[in-house]
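Final report, closing paragraph on structural work. Over the funding period we assembled a curated collection of sequence-structure pairs, and we close with a single example.
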Amino acid sequence: MESSPRFSMGIAAISLVVLSTGAGFVLAHVKDQKIVPRFAGPLIPYDRNYTTSLLWGTYRPGMYFGVQSRTSQSLEMGLMWFTYSGLGGGKLDIRHLCDQNDRLRYGWLDHDGRSFGYQEILDGYANISTSFVKRFRLVHGREQTSSWVARVSLQQNTQYRWSPKAANFRSKMSIIVYFKLEDAGKISPIVASDKLISLEGSTPSLGNFSIHFKRHSETDVGTVFGDETSSFVATTLTKWTELEKTILNNTGIKLGGIVSHSPNLIAVELAVFPNFTLDIVYETLRKEDDQSNSLASISAASLTEVILRKRRHFKEKLRKAFRVDEEHEDFAQAVSILGEEARSRVPDQFVVQNPDYANPPSFLLTAEAMLDRLDLDCPDETDKTLKFFTLAFPRLQAWHN
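Its predicted structure, as stored:
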């Protein structure tokens, strides 16, 4: 049955009213919302002596694996990789920043948020595991991070449906480890007979440091670079978003060797096959330190046992925690965008924070826990905590106003 013109006009009029009412409601709702811009006040000073045990960690969100310190002038470590079998298309299929288009399965399986972590990354036929372990030392009764080891291991992903048999599995992969200075400081490659031995450097907040590289099969502190399977570049990076373009071309690292005599970025590339593990050892250089107890001298087998022991201990604590707190609820904390690196991954329209999309109770729970732990018999600790709240209050006030 055909509709009459009067009926069609009635439907159109009703639709117009509904749409106008809906649009008016949306506009009124948007008008009433307060968009809180980034707080314009000074940063809260970082007291290095207050949380020295948490000085280093996997504090580089948005990356498959990275390590940095919590200081304003940090040294940062990052990981990249690609397969040589994918070079035919003329574009380097690099894995570096987390991207859903990479179609990887990854995540931390164990991480205590303080001293160690272990994750697995499944990338096609490759199973890449990364580990991070810190060593502490006591200074005036406080734990300080004196050194750490990052381990990168490449194995065959036997669960991959197109995975070749282990007997003829010889597909080569490039593993790239880089170190960059965020601000002031210096870093230099130590080279002998055109072979990279180690890295050394310093920053105002971290002091002097050294970095060694060791293959899993080696127990001595020797070089693992210098042949046709490895290369490195020491250069100057002016902008974080240009990192990949600065050191890579369509076949791997470009301009190998020392390009800049005052570099702030050093990248090391290894062409490897599965069943490969690289240990990256960071250590502070202090005259009072016992070099005979250096992490660089620890055997690969001993480090493996340390990682396994920490994983077992973590899982046991996790099981106990779930038994005790299985009825408790968790609150997710609001996310802050800190620094050029993190900001480069966020579209401009999402940089400005909307108070309707946050979870303020999580902050209040943290504040309550900090106050509960105050020990009035330790005036220095009490003063530091109260000073933090004094500096933090204007930010909370800006949020709710």
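The CA atoms of residues 32 and 66 lie 41 Å apart. Confidence is low (pLDDT under 50) at residues 14-19, 218-223, 325-329. We thank the funder for supporting this effort.
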